[in-house]
Give the backbone structure.
Amino acid sequence: MNSIINSVLTDISSVIFGKEKQIKLAISCLLAQGHLLIEDLPGMGKTSLSHALAISLGLSYQRIQFTSDLLPSDIIGTSIFDIKTQAFSFHKGPIFNQVILADEINRAGPKTQSALLEAMEENQVSVDGHSYLLPQPFFVIATQNPIHQAGTYPLPESQLDRFLMRITLGYPGIEAEKKIILGVDNKINNIKIRLKENQFKDLQNIVKLVKLSEPVLDYILALVNHSRLVGRYPMPLSPRASIALSRAAQAWAFINGRDFVTPDDVQVIFPSVVEHRLNVNSGINQGELASELLKEVKVPV
């Protein structure tokens, strides 16, 4: 199974140059059954990464461009009255796919953003008193522009907390940008489908079996509880963050060919899992908060 993951990583790296760690984090997030938030300036490859992930993992994909006039029904779907049957029938929206790219999610208003909450947490949507299950596996990969840009709405805390990870791509390196300028072939259409319909579910089940020893689990809990010290952190980490850290560390260990989690695994994925939870748009440097936590909590021997 690890050979398949390596093939996925190689394929996506042929589209997103010089960002191997970010790609591995994104794959880890999906293997851990979590939703992914990609935050960066426009033109950094956020959309390309999302599309490449869906293709390579063999999952159905739909991109939704979030705009200020987007309505919840544009995402979920709507009930339409059929004259012939004299009854309403539900017409499914684009959310009924396995991978949803919510592109520039913070350009839509809060009401539309909240339309994703039930889908992200419950894997279903409710319309006119009826619940409709979403296809499995189901992931939301959202891209977000920095909140200082015009026409953006900060995501509410409840929605941010539903993203297992938040990553940033950053500017490409000199050599990577040179390839982009020279027009090196990086077309998404060249990516191969590496997994069959049920193989991704099998990989997710294997990730759940990666051993999480008691010392490593105690380390995760120590990190989370340290964030709850009175007055130290604007937004202390919740039990949802504890679960996210555990699952993400298991997925990272699996990608690196191990069936057990080490403290190093926890430290690698820690910033991506907690930074967007620690201060939620308070203006404090999120990276510094995460680094401070890691430094102050003793690593198990």
Notes: Residues 223 and 297 are 6 Å apart (CA to CA). The first strand starts at residue 35 and ends at 39. The mean pLDDT is 83. The first helix runs from residue 2 to 13.
